């Protein structure tokens, strides 16, 4: 096992801890391999594999640019990446995007997972890829290219002619060509569901693509058929380039698997220069999962909770009797006299190639002596036992600073977050709260479905003492509707409790009861040296392994103020301070906000708005959220907030807007009472730090007014009321069986209209609409956070996710509607 905590811990969980107890369900939409999560004719696993190629294919080995860097998200409309598959893939993968899981690593993991799900080899997965912040070069091979062009393109990527043939054959064992994107190759109506497969087994990772080609029986539309006449038979041009020598070498199934393992690893390991990848990951034999300390009321003990996950892949079932966790107190001893806890199995989970058992930890530890580290003993039923001590280091678990979950809360509807931390009284450093969060790109830019990852640091305010600890707290509003995806860290000096999931917090903060008098912790002095907090922040390891990555001249500024966040690149130094939000102070003017500088209090234009680029209005408005909206909506040169809750963006300011006294911009922001947000007809006006250099390239398009809207749940849609986020059925078939359609223009309203007359409608995966009168067995309520996809047709509505329905029910269904009305509605619905 790697030494825990490691920078790869989160990805390890995503990739291996798939189903069952604590399953991360990363494989849900690609299992089974022929699953068509985005609609008929769209094999999701093959879309994931193709995304890996298209993202990598612009690599230039001489310049060290491009490669697997998630730049594809900015390249969806450049003509080389046609079809909905790239978008739906990125959108699904983005559900796992965080400061410890870059989009580029997730794309690589997607290649591993799709190949494995389809019965292919285990492609070794190395990690540490950096995300690009803007589009890269073009250069994805297109079917009309000549054989010589293909050779040159693959040479540029660092692939020999032989490897070009091999990797193309390995890719084209899955999926097919679609009429919608390539009508010259697959004329409309000639495929099944708009798709013609590349070999006879489009959902099995086998070498049929090779053997059918060699035997002359192939129906591969990139080898035979209409493509030939229009010179788009690219697989023929590639496969035949060396007189079929390489293809003949792949006719053995085992050779094909081995070769594909090698070339697909090469494909995902092709990264920009300056990115250093880790060794291939493997599931831990023993891993602490979600370990957390929580101070109990009264302050004399804390609860240690979490799980020890044990890999049981190579063990007989039921081989483990129990596990014993043994810890050391703050002084490295066991002052309380009892420092161990024994647990029996609570749940089991699986990955593609692994099984795991989870042993729950739940024990109280006196705060007077505390905890600093632990080891694990796995006791087997045959009387033997195995010891795990984290490679001789013990598993570190510091009680110097604790993110106290019961006294922390997140209101997901508004993103209002309050975090409480407990700092041991012998720690002198003042704690701060680090938030790493996602914001949707607002008005979707070039169809990029990946939200923006940002981070901010918020100072914490001292509160009551509770025994040997003191409370600190901080509040922040995570605008944009994705607050549940945030990750939270509390840090004091070298101690931290990191990467806590905001989705674990409840909607209201409980009061802490039974506060004891303030004491000095027994033993003392153990902080700082222990190497971090409950789960020390591991991301610095990844951060330090990277050097360059693409420069941050991107039009979307990734705001980062915390050095341990991995995805961002260079940022203006001023944003470090500007994104630090002081708490619990009186209202104040802010000189800078996330890359913008305050200009003045300004009037609207006479008869026109001062800023006409885009606008937003919501009740959680802050200067930061407006700045983020205007950055995401078009990297606008100016933003201004008016009337406490209205945000305006623009690249130019109406000439008739004039300066007003600051005293007239006197309304506090609806979402943060420490900030000023203009007034009636008065804008708190900010300009980009570099706005003096003139307007940006977006200025021409930006003048079109954008709708005033924000992303949020809708309580009612037409005649329907929101039920919640719901899983698909488990008993074969869909949760809603009445009627289905999928569309890239999907909205809740569109689905409601199509389902008119049915009792339920639900939207899944952003673009699939289902109607039905009953919910099939096994369909169960899921956390709202699961339904995280925005609708394909509007960025302002949620439309479920993979295997998750945004579910609505007729308002009249349960109460007022008479059976007669219902029947006629249903009849009407069925005729549709
Ligand atoms: C000369 C190089 C290549 C060319 C010209 C090419 C071209 C194409 C075309 C035109 C399609 C049809 C796409 C659609 O209609 O959705 C396709 C599908 C596909 N390609 Fe390639 N490709 C090449 C290499 C590769 C490589 C190296 C891989 C991965 C290792 C790959 C993976 C795939 C997959 C998995 C599909 C099926 C996608 C689906 O079913 O949605 N291709 N390719």
UniProtKB/TrEMBL annotation:
The keyword Secreted is annotated on this UniProt entry: no
Keyword Transmembrane: no
Xref: Pfam families: peroxidase, WSC
Record GO terms (molecular function): heme binding; peroxidase activity
InterPro entries on file: Ccp1-like, Haem_peroxidase, Haem_peroxidase_sf, WSC_carb-bd
Sequence ranges assigned to domain WSC in this UniProt record: 595-689, 719-811
Keywords: Heme, Iron, Metal-binding, Oxidoreductase, Peroxidase, Signal
Region (Disordered): 520-592
SUPFAM superfamilies registered for this protein in UniProt: Heme-dependent peroxidases
A single GO BP: hydrogen peroxide catabolic process
Source taxon at top rank: Eukaryota
Composition bias, Low complexity: 538-585
PANTHER family for the chain: HEME PEROXIDASE (PTHR31356:SF53), THYLAKOID LUMENAL 29 KDA PROTEIN, CHLOROPLASTIC-RELATED (PTHR31356)
UniProt name for this protein: Heme peroxidase
Organism: Neurospora crassa (strain ATCC 24698 / 74-OR23-1A / CBS 708.71 / DSM 1257 / FGSC 987)
């Amino acid at each position: 096992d790697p030494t825990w905590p490691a920078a790869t811990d989160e990805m390890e969980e995503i990739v291996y801890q798939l189903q069952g107890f604590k399953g991360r369900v990363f494989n849900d939409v690609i299992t089974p391999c022929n699953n068509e999560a985005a609609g008929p004719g769209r094999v999701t696993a093959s879309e994931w594999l193709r995304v890996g190629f298209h993202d990598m294919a612009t690599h230039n080995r001489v310049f060290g640019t491009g490669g697997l860097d998630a730049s594809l998200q900015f390249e969806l409309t450049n003509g080389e990446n046609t079809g909905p598959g790239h978008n739906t893939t990125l959108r699904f993968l983005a559900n796992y995007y965080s400061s410890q899981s870059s989009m580029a690593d997730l794309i690589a993991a997607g290649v591993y997972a799709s190949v494995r799900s389809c019965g292919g080899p285990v492609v070794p997965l190395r990690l540490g890829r950096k995300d690009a912040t803007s589009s890269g070069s073009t250069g994805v091979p297109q079917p009309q290219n000549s054989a010589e062009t293909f050779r040159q393109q693959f040479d540029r990527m660092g692939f020999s002619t032989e490897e070009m043939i091999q990797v193309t054959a390995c890719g084209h064992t899955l999926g097919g060509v679609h009429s919608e994107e390539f009508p010259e190759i697959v004329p409309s109506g000639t495929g099944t569901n708009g798709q013609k497969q590349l070999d006879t087994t489009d959902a099995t990772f086998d070498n049929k693509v090779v053997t059918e080609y060699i035997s002359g029986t192939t129906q591969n539309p990139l080898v035979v058929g209409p493509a030939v006449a229009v010179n788009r038979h690219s697989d023929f041009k590639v496969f035949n380039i060396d007189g079929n020598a390489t293809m003949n070498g792949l006719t053995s199934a085992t050779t094909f698997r081995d070769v594909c393992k090698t070339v697909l690893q090469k494909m995902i390991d092709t990264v920009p220069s300056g990115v250093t990848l880790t060794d291939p990951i493997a599931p831990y034999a023993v891993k602490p999962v979600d370990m957390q300390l929580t101070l109990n009321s009264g302050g004399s003990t804390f609860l240690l909770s979490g799980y020890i996950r044990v890999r049981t892949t190579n063990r007989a079932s039921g081989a483990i009797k129990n596990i014993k966790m043994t810890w050391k107190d703050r002084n490295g001893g066991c002052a309380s006299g009892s420092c161990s806890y024994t647990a029996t199995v609570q749940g089991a989970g699986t990955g593609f190639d692994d099984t795991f058992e989870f042993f729950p930890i739940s024990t109280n530890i006196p705060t007077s002596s505390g905890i600093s580290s632990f080891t694990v003993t796995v006791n087997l039923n045959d009387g033997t036992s195995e010891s795990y001590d984290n490679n001789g280091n013990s598993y570190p678990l510091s009680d110097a600073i604790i993110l106290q979950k019961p006294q922390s809360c997140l209101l997901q509807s508004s993103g209002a977050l309050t975090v409480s931390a407990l700092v041991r009284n012998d720690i002198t450093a003042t704690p701060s709260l680090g938030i790493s969060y996602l914001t949707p790109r607002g008005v979707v830019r070039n169809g990029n479905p990946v939200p923006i990852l940002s981070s901010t640091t918020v100072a914490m305010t001292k509160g009551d003492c509770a025994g040997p600890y003191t409370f600190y707290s901080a509040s922040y509003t995570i605008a944009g509707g994705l607050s549940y995806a945030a990750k939270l860290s509390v840090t004091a000096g070298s101690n931290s409790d990191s990467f806590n999931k905001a989705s674990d917090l409840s909607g209201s903060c409980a009061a802490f009861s039974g506060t004891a008098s303030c004491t000095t912790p027994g033993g003392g002095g153990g902080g700082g040296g222990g190497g971090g907090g409950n789960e020390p922040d591991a991301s610095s390891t990844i951060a330090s392994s990277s050097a360059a990555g693409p420069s941050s001249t991107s039009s979307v500024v990734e705001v980062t103020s915390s050095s341990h966040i991995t995805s961002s690149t260079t940022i203006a130094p001023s944003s470090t301070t500007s994104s630090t939000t002081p708490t619990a102070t009186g209202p104040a003017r802010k000189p800078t906000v996330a890359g913008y500088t305050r200009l003045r209090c300004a009037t609207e234009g006479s008869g026109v708005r001062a800023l006409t680029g885009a606008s937003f209005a919501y009740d959680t408005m802050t200067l930061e959220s407006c700045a983020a909206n205007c950055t995401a909506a078009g990297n606008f040169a100016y933003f201004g907030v008016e009337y406490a809750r209205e945000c305006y963006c623009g690249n130019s300011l109406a000439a008739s807007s004039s300066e007003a006294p600051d005293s007239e911009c006197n309304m506090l922001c609806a979402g943060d009472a420490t900030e000023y947000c203009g007034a009636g007809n008065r804008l708190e006006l900010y300009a980009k730090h570099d706005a003096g250099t003139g307007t940006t390239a977006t200025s021409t398009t930006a003048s079109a007014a954008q709708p005033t809207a924000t992303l949020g749940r809708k309580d009612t849609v037409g005649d329907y009321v929101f039920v919640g986020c719901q899983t698909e059925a488990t008993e074969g078939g869909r949760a809603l069986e009445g009627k289905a359609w999928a569309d890239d223009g999907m909205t809740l309203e569109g689905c409601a209209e199509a389902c008119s007359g049915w009792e339920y409608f639900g939207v899944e995966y952003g673009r699939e609409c289902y109607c039905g009168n009953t919910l099939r067995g096994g369909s169960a309520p899921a956390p709202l956070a699961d339904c995280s996809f925005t609708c394909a047709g509007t960025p302002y509505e949620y439309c479920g996710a993979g295997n998750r329905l945004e579910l609505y029910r007729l308002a009249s269904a349960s109460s007022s509607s008479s059976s007669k009305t219902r029947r006629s509605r249903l009849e009407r619905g069925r005729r549709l």
